[in-house]
Amino acid sequence: MLDGHLLLGWLSFTVIVYLLNLPGPTAAYFGLRSRGWGGIPGVVKHPLKLSSFATRMLTGNEPFSNLPLNSLPEENVGRAHYKLCDRLKLEKKQRRMCRRDPGVAETLREAITMSAQECHYQFRFERWNCPLEGRHRANILKRGFKETAFLYAISSAGLTHAMAKACSAGRMERCTCDEAPDLENRKAWQWGGCGDNIKYANKFVRDFLGKRSNKDLRARVDMHNTNVGIKISKGNITCKCHGVSGSCTVRTCWRQLLPFHEIGANLKLLYENGSKVGSSTNEATGEGEIATGRRQQQQQQQQQQEQQEQQEQPQQQQQPPPPPLPGPNDQIPRTMTLLHIEDSPSFCRPSKYSSGTAARTCYKDNNCDAICCGRGHNTQSREVTRPCQCQVRWCCYVECKQCTQREEVYTCKG
């Protein structure tokens, strides 16, 4: 079993902010060497505008660059990755795995950055937009919301994806390309190219997250969602034909991961169709709580009292009792479904889980009513300058004019 607690450790607030503020290699991985997403350190201080984000969609298929491991100048080249490993909130075994291969530290860094950015993209139209900054993410990771399930899944998927890509790019000492496929009909084509080493990536992620003896509901749900993220990162078989005049006399095939943006979209669908396996509600705050120990006993007593009151009411007014909370020995469904145990807060007002939706940009005919929580929205007119009338010039550049136009911007009222 996978340890959701260990995943929570290196996805904590301090680690996320530290990774997003580090200069250098991460931007090269995403192919963003100019402004916008290229300036990773600016993500925390200057949240991205939606328009600029949409033009820089992550695919996960961007080519790896040669990422220098000595981004920390005070360290020598041979052990530069030790510093990054030590700054991550890793357990003893995880730190050892990080140190034994120079490529692991940068891969962990790329994985968490890629998953954080993809999460932000997938939820850009939602009340909770998976912000890249603040302590809200760390607080959500400690609960059992639908959003918690997505964070665990997208994070493990990002680690699996980044590790498989790092192997095929030659950045790891302990793995290379996927050269030994266990596939049917291999006689019909030749195995070639440099496939993404998904098998090694899956093994590494499971070893990295380790095992946990705790069998409580929350731990098992977290482990299940982490497993979903690993399993969804499966690869496709990509083939190339060889022959005279375009004929396909011989096919060379290799295993290639789905673009990470597609993985994020698939996980978003699982999030929208997620299943609730148990809940406990705090009547004072209206927010979900995890029922454990004394709190669980109080919850069971309260449910029994409510059932007695319902039996005294007329038959037509009775409501079906809520499903019982799964016990420690109950089975978690082994399906590709994201599970949660608590109802999410509304995310409309500022709280420890979000900064609310006041001043959020929305689209008038699309999502303003939902994002603004019925408070209405403000309309502002502004001038924007964008490239227009672009033409390709021989040989190798695009020439554009700069056009100015007015547009309306809608923001939620406070």
UniProtKB/TrEMBL annotation:
One of its GO terms (biological process) is animal organ development. One of its GO terms (molecular function) is frizzled binding. Its main location: secreted. It comes from the Eukaryota. Residues 1-28 form the signal peptide. SUPFAM superfamilies: beta-sandwich domain of Sec23/24. Belongs to the Wnt family. InterPro entries: Wnt, Wnt_C, Wnt_CS. Keywords: Developmental protein, Disulfide bond, Extracellular matrix, Glycoprotein, Lipoprotein, Secreted, Signal, Wnt signaling pathway. SMART domains: WNT1. PANTHER family: PROTEIN WNT-9A, WNT RELATED. GO terms for cellular component: extracellular space. Residues 278-333 are annotated as: Disordered. It is found in: Secreted, Extracellular space, Extracellular matrix. Residues 296-318 have a biased composition (Low complexity). This is Protein Wnt. Ligand for members of the frizzled family of seven transmembrane receptors.
